Amino acid sequence: MLPLYTAFSELLPLLAVGATPLLKVKTISQVIDSKTLEIVNATTLSSPFATFSFSATASFEVQTSSRVQVQFKEGVFQPPEISSSLDLPETVDIFGQKIDLKPVQQTLNPIQEAAANITRSISGQPPLKVPLPGNRAASWLLITYLDHDFRISRGDGGLFILAKEGSPLLDLLS
C-alpha cells in the first residue's frame, strides 16, 4: 500500500526532510502479509550522493472485523547506497531563490573516485537492526473503509489513507 495522506505527527519530520532541496522522499510503502501476520513499513530517501532505506517490522492480530492490534518489533536501517557519480541538479531553489550549483559540481568531481571506494566497502555490510521493546511499540488500527484498491484507517497515531500499488486511483492523482 502507498500512502496518499496521513495526519500521523511522527511522519511530519520525514515529510519535512523530503521538502529540502537535495533530499527527497523516494518511496513510502506498507506491505501486509496476511499469512505470517506481519506488516513492513518502509521508506527510501534519495540525494545526489546516496540513497537511504529504513523500515519497521510489526506483527498484527485481528481483533474484530474492523480493528487490528499492532506490535512493532524492530527497525532496520539498510547500509546507504552511495552514488558512484555525484549528480547534482544545475540549480536548487532555496526559500524562493535559485542557486547555481555548477561551480559546486565542478569542485566535487575529484571526490567521485573516493565515493566509489566507499560504495565498495559499504555494499557488503549487513543492515543495522534495532529492537523496539515495550508498550511504546504497541498500536492499533480501526479500519474505516477497505476495498480492493483503497484503505482508510484511524489509529492511536492518526489518520491513514493508502492505495494499493498499481491501483487506477494512483493514475488519477498523478
UniProtKB/TrEMBL annotation:
Its main location: plastid. Keywords: Plastid, Signal, Transit peptide. Pfam families: PAP_fibrillin. Residues 1-19 form the signal peptide. GO terms for cellular component: plastid. It is found in: Plastid. Residues 4-163 form the Plastid lipid-associated protein/fibrillin conserved domain. This is Plastid lipid-associated protein/fibrillin conserved domain-containing protein. It comes from Zingiber officinale (Ginger).
